[in-house]
Amino acid sequence: MSEHLFYLIQQLLNGLTLGSSYALIAIGYTMVYGIIGMINFAHGEIYMIGTYIAFVVLSALMMAGFDNVPLLFIGAFAISMLVTSVYGWTIERVAYRPLRGGNRLIPLISAIGMSIFLQNLVRTAQGSRDIALPVLVHGGWVIGPDQGFHITLSYMQVVIFAVTFLAMTILSLYISRSRMGQACRACSEDMGMAALLGIDTNKVVAFTFVVGAALASIAGVLLGTYYGVVNPYVGFIAGIKAFTAAVLGGIGSIPGAVLGGLLLGITEALTAGYLSPEYSDVVSFLLLCLVLLFLPTGILGRPEVEKV
Q1: Given 7, 68, 219, 262, which residue has the most CB atoms within 10 angstroms?
Q2: Residue 73 has what pLDDT?
Q3: CATH topology (fold) of 3-294
Q4: CB under 8 Å to 22, separation ≥6 — which residues?
Q5: Largest CA distance in the chain
């Protein structure tokens, strides 16, 4: 195998790592939009808060003498998902439910205001500087000759792939087979008719915010421990990227959010590897423009049918 092929495979692995996290965050956008037709622009800040909670939990456990890596991860995931789920439920209650049914622009402005509020809340509490997270998983596999370029697959990348795949599989099975999943799909088709059939639509909407927040916190723990740094502004960038991934794959479609996240991550990695990291955002948004130009609903999105 040539060095060029090794380099290409390395960039693809890097892109899949980044894209997996984008996909986890994008599912939150696509679930909320699929049911109530609105965008939760405070979702990126939920991801950021999940990373900060992971930092606090990991620091506390390690100071208490715990050094078992699986136990540290379980503790970080559990507490982070619990706290961010409360945030997700609160955002729905405060910023969306009182405004639902009116002009769509009003909840959008409310969500942007909630995003700014959460960002400044964390900045006031934790400061605006970068905070280093402990690196829990070290080492990896090296493939290729001793001399020249070789492929590196870290153990942490494998953890990211495995946790992302497991979380998405559990969510897909739950949505397809549980009563709440059926209620979510019914509300996605027609909220008014679902309410007439006895489905508690407020409960379903709150559930989507909670699940989306929990998935975003998983991405926060994974990326935080992978890159080892967090600040109050990482949520804005990650949220915009995840929203782009959701639109790219077809907003409202969970498989589309996954596909869009992986495509966006691979595009950014290849651009950074072959052109320059400064052009990664430009090429990613250019890809989005091209897809929407020829597929206005995204790759896996369904055309919106006007009900009469």
Answers
A1: 219
A2: 93
A3: ABC transporter involved in vitamin B12 uptake, BtuC (1.10.3470)
A4: 219, 238, 241, 242, 245, 260, 261, 262, 264, 265
A5: 69
